[in-house]
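Appendix B, record 7
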Amino acid sequence: MTGEEPATGGDVRIAGHSVSAEETRAVEALGFCPQASALWHAVTPREHLELYAVLGGRQPRAAAAAAGRLLKSLDFEDHGDKYSQKLSGGTRRKLSVAIALISRPRVCVLDEPSAGMDPASRRALWEVLQRELRGNRCAAVVTTHAMEEAETLCDCIGILVRGRLRALGSPARLRSRYGREYGIEINLIEPGVGEGGRECGRGSRGDDVVEFISRRFPSARLRERLGGRLSFSLDIAQQGSGMGGQSGGVRPHIGQPALLVSAESAAEPSPLTGEATLENSTDGGNGAPPPGRGDREGTGAWGRSRRCGLILLAEVFESLEGARKALGIADYAVSLPSLEQVFLHFARVQESGE
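Structure tokens (predicted):
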């Protein structure tokens, strides 16, 4: 796309210009942030930005103003007049991204833009990138190994395995199609007196919860146990339970009525965290469908989910809510499959050579 390597076949058009036939015009519309540093050691960030702004067609005074604005937006204005060789790795990445944006390109290619940055700087960089790309009506092509970065910056994500495109779609679509596990987080109430007047500590309650989850969902695995907090992974594809749900290879489509069938108070999953949290049930914990949802085998959401294999997530809610009081559960959350899980799945595919 940048014209650095000759194409072995096909063509790429940037802003309507062919990289092969009109390389100069195509590259003029392109902003590029390489993974390896391409900075001059004895030139300051301000000088870098002003130079690239002038090369991109700005007048010197406008170039200076644009350079100052980006230095401030990316929070390295204090380093604007230092030689680039004296900058930290994270600050050099900020400068490389700023150079890609300074000429107001139509298309921006960003290769690992936040590599080497601390979490706070990474978040700040993403916010600036989103603002600048929208403001300039600029498309971006981002290569990254960080799924959080991909989900934050990209509307469409492609996953490459051994140089071939193996998956393409929105973050929600990829989670739905390739997600393997639900996450279950359970917090127990403070130690005290349980049913029948017997003392009940978090340890015994935790053992009861592990036994209950393992019995009800055989594919569940305990990921972490810390005090009164337990974390489980639940395999979607192989999940089965003693509640009559379908098992063996049924993969629910995330976003269908299974997310809503447990209780009126079940929250929609957050677009950032992917978590849907159920605080209180309207069914009284007896496993009955909430009012207005229809019976489990009827025409309501419960019936549709059962027939389509989408009852799996509802079973998790129903099971936990039904046993909540007996097990001493204070609250719990069920998270949808993450993009990180999807990426790790394809990484294992690459290692196995499938």
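Remarks on this record: The mean pLDDT is 75. The domain at 13-154 is CATH 3.40.50.300 (Rossmann fold).
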